[in-house]
C-alpha cells in the first residue's frame, strides 16, 4: 500500500495491473437469500438449479391436426374417420385404433397408439373424416416425453445473472424460489464546486456523472445509494466518505482526483482513513483513477470528465460490481470488429473510444467507425455509438481493415 502524498504524482499503472488491483479491493459474497423467481430478475444465482424431471413431462402434439396410427394404415388408405377430439389439458385421452384419426391440438397429450400427427392444413376435412394427401413419417409433429431436457439438466448455473429466459425456464420446471446472493451496495458521489442543479450561473455545469454512474451501477445489478454532490471542500468530503464507507460495499466518486492543488479528493480520502492501492492508470481517457479502500468498503475514484468517468466505470467499477455480486467477471471488449477508419495515435496509454457499427463485412464481422476524436469531456459522441472499442497502450496506428476489440453496449 502506498501512502498519500498530494504534492507528488506517481508513474502510471498499466491497465491490466489496475484491473487486478481494482478486483483485489472487493470480495465475492458469502451470504445467500432465497427469493421467489418473480423477484429474481438481475440477481445472481448462489446455487446451480437442476431439473427435477425430464421435459416435456408427457408426449404431446406439436401442431393442431390429426393424430394417426401408422402401423395399421394401409398405403392405399387415404380416408380416415375422425373418432374423437383431444385438447391441451385433456385428462381422459382415448386410445387410437388402427384405421382412424383423432383431432388433436398443440400441446395435447398424444393418444395411446398414435405415432404421428398430420397438420390440419395438410388434410382435406369432410364429414367426420379426413382425406390425407400422403402418410406422415413416424414421429412427425410429436413432442416426445423427455426430448427437450433430461432430468438433472442444469437450468441455471451458480454465479449466473438471472435473465428473463431463466425465469421462464425455472417456472416451466415448477421451481418457485431461487437462492441468490445479496446485491452489492454502491454509493455514488459527485464532487465539484461547479456542479449545480439550479439554473446555471457563470462557470457552472450540471452534474452528469452521478446520474450516469447510478444508472450504470443499477444496470450492473447493484443497490445504489445516491450520495449527492459535494463541493471541493476537504473536510466535508472526508466526513461524507467515512460515512459512506460504513454504508456501502463500494464507494464511487467522480472528479477531484487529478494532480491540481484544488483537487481535494486524495487528501479527503486520506483523512477519511482511506488507503490507496493504485492511483493514475495508463488508460485514455481516465488517467486520474484512484483505487483503494476505506475501512471495509472498496473505493474507486473516477475522473471528472464524463466520458473518462464512463470509461473508468466500464474498465474497473463494472468488474468490481460483478465480483461483489458473485458473478464471474466478464472480460472487457472480448468481441472482434474491423476498423473502418485509419488512425495514428501517440502510444503510452491504452485507449478506449466510442464506435458505431456500420454493418458487417463479407465474413460477418462488424465494421466499426471511430467516434469522438479522443475527447473526454463530453458524452455526446457516445450517443451515436453502439459500443466501446479499445487499443493497447503500445498501439501507434490502426489501419483500415485491422481487427479491433470492442464491447457492444448490448453486452454490458
Ligand atoms: N495538470 C494536470 N491537469 C489535468 C490532468 C493532469 O494529468 N495534469 N489530467 C487531466 C485529465 S486526463 C482528466 S480526466 C481530468 C480529470 O480531473 P479530475 O478527476 O480531478 O476532475 P475535475 O478536475 O474535478 O473535473 C474535470 C472536468 O470534469 C468536469 N466534471 C467534474 N465532475 C463532473 C460531473 N459530475 N458532471 C459533469 N462534469 C463534471 C469538471 O467540471 C471538469 O471540466 O483532469 C485533467 N487535468
Ligand atoms: O484521462 Mo483524461 O480522462 O484523458 O481525459
From TrEMBL:
| NCBIfam families, sorted | Glp_gephyrin, molyb_syn
- Source species, domain of life: Bacteria
Per the UniProt record, one Pfam family is MoCF_biosynth
Q: In which pathway does it act?
A: Cofactor biosynthesis; molybdopterin biosynthesis
- Swiss-Prot/TrEMBL keywords: Magnesium, Metal-binding, Molybdenum, Molybdenum cofactor biosynthesis, Transferase
- Catalytic activity line of the entry: adenylyl-molybdopterin + molybdate = Mo-molybdopterin + AMP + H(+)
**Broad class of enzyme this protein falls into:** transferase
Q: Cross-referenced InterPro entries, in alphabetical order?
A: MoaB/Mog-like_dom_sf, MoaB/Mog_dom, MoeA-like, MoeA_C_domain_IV, MoeA_C_domain_IV_sf, MoeA_linker/N, MoeA_linker/N_sf
Biological classification of the source: Bacteria, Pseudomonadati, Pseudomonadota, Alphaproteobacteria, Hyphomicrobiales
List each copy of the MoaB/Mog domain by range.
187-323
Q: According to the UniProt entry, what is the EC number of this protein?
A: 2.10.1.1
> Record's SMART domains?
MoCF_biosynth
PANTHER family reported in the protein's UniProt record: GEPHYRIN, MOLYBDOPTERIN BIOSYNTHESIS PROTEIN
- Asked if the Swiss-Prot or TrEMBL record annotates the protein with the keyword Transmembrane, the reply is no
Q: Which cofactor does it need?
A: Mg(2+)
- Return the similarity comment: Belongs to the MoeA family.
Function as written in the Swiss-Prot or TrEMBL entry: Catalyzes the insertion of molybdate into adenylated molybdopterin with the concomitant release of AMP.
Metal-binding as UniProt keyword = yes
What name goes with this protein? Answer: Molybdopterin molybdenumtransferase
